[in-house]
Amino acid sequence: MSTLRTLAHTALPFIAAAVLSVSAAQAQAQGLRAEVGRPLQQAGELLKAGKAKEALAKVREAEAVPGRTAAEQLTIDRMKAAAAQRAGDLRTAVTALEAVAAKAPAGEMGALAEQIASAYAQQRDNAKATEWMNKAIAAGNNGPTIKQLQAYLQGASGDYAAIARDAGAAVSAAEQAGRRPDEGDLLRLADAQQRTGNNAGYVATLEKLLLNHPKKDYWNAYLARLPRKPGFSDRFALDVMRLRLASGTLTRTEDFMEMAQLALQAGLPAEGLAIVEQGYKAGALGTGAEAARHQRLKDLAIRQLAEQKSAIAAQGDQAASQGSGDDLVKLGYTLVTLGQADKGIAMIEQGIAKGGLKHPTDARLRLGMAQLQSPAAKGKAAATLRGIKGTDGVADIAHLWLIAG
Fold first, then answer.
1. CB within 8 Å of 243: residues ≥ 6 apart
2. Which of 83, 138, 150, 403 is the most buried (most CB within 10 A)?
3. Are 94 and 118 in contact (CB under 8 A)?
4. What is the topology classification, in CATH, of domain 3-157?
5. pLDDT for 128-165, tens place per residue?
6. Do residues 354 and 328 lie in contact, with contact meaning Cβ atoms separated by under 8 Å?
7. What ranges do the domains of the chain cover?
8. Distance of CA 191 to the CA centre of its chain
9. Is 269 exposed, middle or buried (0-12, 13-18, 19+ CB in 10 A)?
10. pTM of the full structure
């Protein structure tokens, strides 16, 4: 549904709320003469029966009474707005509403102006819609329909800089107040940033969407762009796919195959086998013309895993004898994938303490990821991951694990 149609369904039904069931007693209490109150009462009954055109005719009958008082005319205009809206006569409805706005109490102006602005927007009279929208805002109406209308009008005018400014201000205000930014404000901001070429801002807003409203669509959008970020290192290709798997956005057969192969190339057959098995469970592997190829990959992972398990002790001795802690970190993370998280964490920490690491921040990333897998150490993971800095993608991966958990 388009924004314009949405406005029609969310803003204009207000007029129906103006339907009056005008009894003789009510008419007298409102200062209506019988010749005015009687047709309005009949109009209300007709509206309730779904006969809008007949109701509008009764309103016009009341309007034909000479010498109408201000109270009588206000009641007539309210009923006319309701009947005209139900009858599909939007122009008459808006004219009646403007007449109501000219005489109604000040406390009603915010709601009335919103309704008039929305009606003009449906008629594609954006200038008048903007005029009444501004009156609604000036009257203190900053509700969701006004925000939606504002976004529509700004978008219709092509003023995406204004959308970015207004949506950004709403997001900042929520953050400063300690509230979660509204999803709609974040989406408007992201769209405006994308349309104005603010790629850095767009990615930052996507991250806020992930943090505050984690959904698969936002994970897909963010992770698709991450490898193209300037300076992002290819060595994190497997990490991006890990995040896709964790967020439920790894679904294609070729992606399961590629991720499993990357894990095997990294010397992590247990992880590779787990990926293949998830692919089978999801129905992405094990079927179709390539089923035999999928099985060969699974058999390879099983074979490499058996070989690794038989050699793990010797690998530990060899890693401990090296001058740097790189092999200890690598073997420690291997233990994590084998289901020995606490033992793996201790070995990664030993490698970090030993030093001489080719990529010290990568080692901290593996430590944080390992801590997430350990009930005993999970409480430390956030501090570890938050402390990771870098411009090659390592900090991005660490931050995303804070969100994915």
1. 219, 223, 397, 400, 401, 404
2. 83
3. no
4. 1.25.40
5. 988 988 998 899 888 888 888 887 887 777 788 888 99
6. yes
7. 3-157, 233-404
8. 12
9. buried
10. 0.69
